[in-house]
## 1
Amino acid sequence: MDENASGGDSDDIDWNTDDELEIASYGLPSCSSMTVNDGETIAGSTEASSSAGSSSSKMIDHFVGMGFSEEVVAKAIQENGEQNTDLILEALLKHSASSSASSSKSKLIDHFVGMGFSVDMVAKAIQENDCTVNAVLVGLAIHVHDKAGALGQSSQAEQHINSDQNSPELDGSFLDGFSDTDSFEGEEITNPDPDKEEKLVSLASMGYSVQEASIAMERCGPNTSIAELTDFICAAQMAKAADALLAEIEDKPRPKPSNGYHKHKKRRMLDYEKPPIDEPIRLPNPMIGFGVPSNPDVIVHRSLPEAAAGPPYFYYENVALAPKGVWDTISRFLYDVEPEFVDSKYFCAAARKRGYVHNLPIENRHHLVPLPPQNIYEALPLSRKWWPSWDTRSHLNCLQTCIASAKLTERIRKALEECDGEPEPPHHVQKFVMDECRKWNLVWVGRNKLAPLEPDEVEMLLGFPKNHTRGGGISRTDRYKSLGNSFQVDTVAYHLSVLKEMYPDGINVLSLFSGIGGAEVALHRLGVRMKNVVSVDISEVNRNIVRSWWEQTNQKGTLIDFADVQQLDANRIEQMINAFGGFDLVIGGSPCNNLAGSNRHSRDGLEGKESSLFYDYFRILDLVKNMMQRN
DNA sequence: GACACCATGACCCCGATT
DNA sequence: AATCGGGGTCATGGTGTC
């Protein structure tokens, strides 16, 4: 980000810097890996790693399998030597980027126009700056937005922008691109109001034009929420019978706000004529989505909105019990696809109520085998001996990121011991114990003795291999945290299982907010071959966990990881799409910190610090969709 | 009213560093 | 001895649904 913002050799990967140093620091003996700038790491397959004996043709096959042309691969091998697969891969990625450079300018224009900026504005900005700088404008806008609203989420992103929160050049950099256009009000440039500017940038990062955003804020007043502003903008868009912007775009209509927001706005505009028809999204009871293995035929067919159809297939996950309106917004952005709400208690011994927005087929899904333990007794057979009859739990509650304190379990033990002579504790003691058990997922480990789950038990319940998060310098606390933030593998695998027959040769995966690799583990356990996986996660220990798992399971594909979704700008995505031939699956669950009920401090909804990263999921998915449809 | 919830921040302890 | 930072421990309440 920083290098892009500063222009210069921004889009050129600097192949000759400290790569080797960073490679050494990762220390991966069995698997070739490298770190490109921005902390991107590429781990090649073991078969492609730099064993001196590997034949040239085998290596060519390998890279051809990744989507590069044979001719280009041969040339790269010739220039870099067989020994260094990392350099070859770098050269290939670089080549794919440069070969697409000629068309990148018009694509850039298309892209930004598609986001709502005027053609004049985009053309002027591109003329005045290097193409690549402009390609990062959206990312920059989001950076500024994050800086204002999400400080601290991404240390790397912060570092890349500027460490000074009040940096004038940062504030100016986004605005400068438009400062001399007639659509921008000088007042806001010379004397920006922080709150106003933040909203402006938020709206810009959501794909609205600066002009639209400015007008909306002027009309609606200073205290208007983002949601209200977006509604206003879409109302204005609807009011325009002929949208000049859209007329200039030859590809499909803008997907996100145009679909849902227009629909909703139209409705709202007509509120005074007739009552609203659309109902807000409600959670189903029982929470079995479109069907679970034990009850698979609830909904056997659904029709997706046209703009939602894949490929690429996408799969987005977050907590089901988010504040009001959050899932409506998520659904509107994700092409109006109806969320599938599923409780993992239908798949394993622990509850996990989640919403999934995806465009995967829902026919002929199958569950993972072997089936995971279906209840507490199966999952924790040793606890059965101590389990009192009055503890009627068959399933655990949601596995969270922290566990009960030792003091609490001690208090419980004492309370139970006080009524040891009786056949059963009195009702009020039972209630106290059961309340705490449900709250903290305590399990019986001895007479009158309750304890929180061990990390490896959480791994098992979530469908991960034992010790998946162990080692690599991760603390116990962080293991709970990473696990608590993860997918339930069996549940996700059930939804992804349709990919197995659709892609017998394997898939390319873009995995955002990967965490400890729930998506990757699910695909692996399903037997879906992963040709190339681009995995993004802010946490270094999580990235190490995924990479370590990748090596241990002898994956034949290539794992590339990034620390920050902000690194995935249009250029880099295009580069990877050209290299791999596109992504088949864009999967991820953005942070739920500001949505989760457990958070009493900053449950700020989708505009909260961390949870606003949902918009990055949409931004990246939409970029991938647009680029793949053009190619 | 009961229940559930991918959490946060203050504090303490301990080992490493200066 | 002073300082620092990471890990562990602990208490904490509001929102939404049923």
## 2
Amino acid sequence: MINWDDIKYFLEVARSGNITAAAKKLGVNHSTVSRRIQALEEQNGVRLFDRIPTGYEMTEAASNIYEFALEIEARNHDIARGLVGQDSRLQGDINVTMPHNILDYCLMREVTRFKELHPEIRLNLFVAKGVKNLAAREADVAIRLTPSPPDYLIGKEITKIQHGFYQSRNLKVTSEVPIIVWGDETALPTWAQDHFPKAEIALRVDDLYSMYTAVKAGLGIAKMPCYLPDTIADEEVRRIDIEIPPSSWGVWILSHVDLRHTARVRECRLFLGKCLEDRRSLFKGLESLYV
Amino acid sequence: MINWDDIKYFLEVARSGNITAAAKKLGVNHSTVSRRIQALEEQNGVRLFDRIPTGYEMTEAASNIYEFALEIEARNHDIARGLVGQDSRLQGDINVTMPHNILDYCLMREVTRFKELHPEIRLNLFVAKGVKNLAAREADVAIRLTPSPPDYLIGKEITKIQHGFYQSRNLKVTSEVPIIVWGDETALPTWAQDHFPKAEIALRVDDLYSMYTAVKAGLGIAKMPCYLPDTIADEEVRRIDIEIPPSSWGVWILSHVDLRHTARVRECRLFLGKCLEDRRSLFKGLESLYV
DNA sequence: GATTATCTGTGCAAAAATGCACGAATGATA
DNA sequence: TATCATTCGTGCATTTTTGCACAGATAATC
């Protein structure tokens, strides 16, 4: 009988397109992946990948079994969640993911506190940009900024996100209003059109903290979620007294339904939820320093 | 991430109810199974089996993931067939299953011949009583006696099976007719009621060859598929000249659809099919020695 | 065209998994 | 009750798998 674990290797190589990347994802040496694939091919007398100079490319034979492999992976995730879901110990791994700004400016101290409270729990923090897949158990607890999370996640909305316009106290606005926008925005954003008809794009950034420092440096006006500048509460950076309707996006603390009763996951979710609730007025923009 | 191969161990233990039997099925030492299950439990902090004196018993936690494990097994079988299905070599393993009487009295010489013709092919013969599951790749080629095979199997019907009544040439039939029947038949079988109203059950057997030797020993009359006594063609054992309509069951040579184009499987199927066709008149009861 | 980076395969040593053999515990059987 | 048969866990030797380090090959880049 084939080694079921080899399907895992096969799948990852098929997805990655080369054994190096697959090995990294699987957390093993690339030579292991190489040898497993070789073994799978030899044992079945089937060539699964063409060795092209840039890596591995699926053959037709491989495409024929690819769908089955995906199905197996999905069921394995179900099992993994099923098992963790019944773990009543306050120990083991928890993978937590959140936007890195939330961590840096809201929860760093609290996460540290949690680790002190539960030294038996190994808390792994993923603050990378990509959205972690809770169904695949890439994360057990997630803080997400989203209008509404999918059905298979449980948790609650802490509050809606409030945005505000911010500028440096020293910013001298003449006829043209310099504004700072997101890098992916090509045209003048609607908020600028509405409130600053004479706006001119002064800078594009792809990171919230960069936006903040740009504002602080006096480069222009930016629309930011209040929690960041208001946490830092720098004398230089002030909110402009223009009302913006609250965003339809909220701050959510979430877990997969299957992990509802898992002791450590529940503990972590409730703990972080509490922390966020303590910051509610911050998210609502009630602690701003105005111009 | 969990070791996907461990699910295989889990599933087999869940099915077997003890690690010894599971290990035997998996072809490994029982201590390996024991340690794998232990590891799976420890890594996930979940007890999967209660150790009862007679073996292992699934906990609720285990039942919750059992269905997923079955699904994974099925998809792994799909993959295994998918891979073998694209093997164009005339080498490797073939698992063949057939009723043991067919092997003993029809195909023993031919199987030997096939192995000589294709020394690169490792032909594994399963003549055990239980019906092998072709979907699970327990067998690649099967000779089956059946009214009609399931859709996912391909192959052909060699001929319908002809039965006949046999007796020893020396059998003296007085007022009562001694008959030999299958062990699971409780009442007088219909064939006896129809043709031998004065029949008396003289012996019950659970094996065709035993039935034959009983007939030869003069214990009574038996209804047997013609191929067996007619192959042996013993002077003592004669068919009674009573017509029996041909059975609705036929002799089939079969493979799984997925293995249609697999070179060695195709070769074997065609070869054995040919052998059976050469014996067609035997199955039709055209070579009987009559009383 | 030369250089750099990326990707892959392989020998060798270290690590992990496996098989074997034994002993303990329980259930079945005489 | 005593014996036998199953079943399971564990120490130890062996086998297998894995990681590491290096080398060769091709693509990308300068």
## 3
Amino acid sequence: MKGYDPHAFEPFAVTVDLAVFTVRGGALNVLLIRRGQDPYAGAWALPGGFLLPRESAETAARRELAEETGLAEAVVAALHLEQLRTYSDPDRDPRMRVVSVAFAALVPDMPEPVAEGGGDAAQARWVPVGETGPLAFDHARILSDARSRIGAKLEYTCLATGFCPPEFTLGELQSVYETVWDTALDRPNFRRKVLATPGFVEAVPGAARLTGGRGKPAALYRAGPATALHPPLLRPTEGHAQ
Amino acid sequence: MKGYDPHAFEPFAVTVDLAVFTVRGGALNVLLIRRGQDPYAGAWALPGGFLLPRESAETAARRELAEETGLAEAVVAALHLEQLRTYSDPDRDPRMRVVSVAFAALVPDMPEPVAEGGGDAAQARWVPVGETGPLAFDHARILSDARSRIGAKLEYTCLATGFCPPEFTLGELQSVYETVWDTALDRPNFRRKVLATPGFVEAVPGAARLTGGRGKPAALYRAGPATALHPPLLRPTEGHAQ
DNA sequence: GCAAAAGTGTTTGCGATACACCCATGC
DNA sequence: GCATGGGTGTATCGCAAACACTTTTGC
């Protein structure tokens, strides 16, 4: 093994592909870009690109994310970015051998149609998952894998706060869960579970924010330092319920 | 993105690295090979190797596994092989740019010192995790990631049977959990949980096997068709307990 | 008989679910 | 006042941890 004979291996291209999720309008959306060139010119695809010579996959993913979304580097550096898996089927790209490391990222609801792709990415838009038509390459598969991974991770990690703005109400956090899982949760019980987990959320001492008009103003919370969710927050009956 | 300009990307070498685990002598062991060449000549490393031109990472991993362990192709094809993540730090290999897709595999206790590496792998042996000295490249990191992944996966999947021979007793299955988690489990409760999960194990109609001398002979079970463990089997207090 | 391991039964208590209820705001 | 959403309290039910107990073997 590991012979390092220069002829012992085939040169591969290595790319990253990103499944960038947000919650908007009561639905889980994913960021898609329209391809400007062949193959799959005109088709929608996940954002991504080649690794630069001195970049790790994580670094490349953050760079691409900043380029495609127009978010500030500092913001992108703090986002939750999770490596999903690597797709290496020899025929996944019709032109050449490309191995792609897929990532999932979570962003809060953004101003609107995102940066209009400064480079060769002609168009970028948010699309509700499930309303994406066919995608280029094996991106439908990647998206499907990313979606189920995100759903499962909400159960035992704190990453749901990644979908929320810096300060949020528990109602907003709950609607993130309800949107991603597509289930209704009991508000009092949700509240208790979240507050019972040390470091999941921290109360913002100051004021309360209106929920958009009617109703009692809700207390504001920030994401806490915890990353794992020890008593897991299980979805009702669907799947991993106990 | 995805410009396909041949100069737009750097050629990378792509390898697979395997963390192959087994339970032997009351400890979790991992398969290591001693490197025959530089870099890290003489050091111990995880088995692995380059992808062939028309191979996916999964196919390459199974091929390498068969080569290193001497297991029959049919056996290897049925093993649980799980993609962990991809390691792509630009400096992880001192010679060149190598991106490595890491896998974890579970095998039952094997005859003994495994095939003596037919190729350039000088030596192969089982080593209890924690007694591996320093490893080549970033393999200590990979091994550590693999170990925690395996531990977590035992909670909510059925893959513990992968550590057992085709027919096993519930005592053997329990000792797999106890070895990997390094905790003691209550036998009656373990029994109930395992038997209450449909498809986890199936009773072998015929005889019972002695437990190696003393004690009441135990009933034999086979791995069932289930892969996920719905009421998860949580480890006591450590970590994901509820 | 004794030790060791398999297997069964039973009690108990924690925790989550499923509610009922009160509070504060906009219209 | 009423609708809307935030927040608090509480009874019940179920599960699982803990442990006592029986069974079957080897020595």
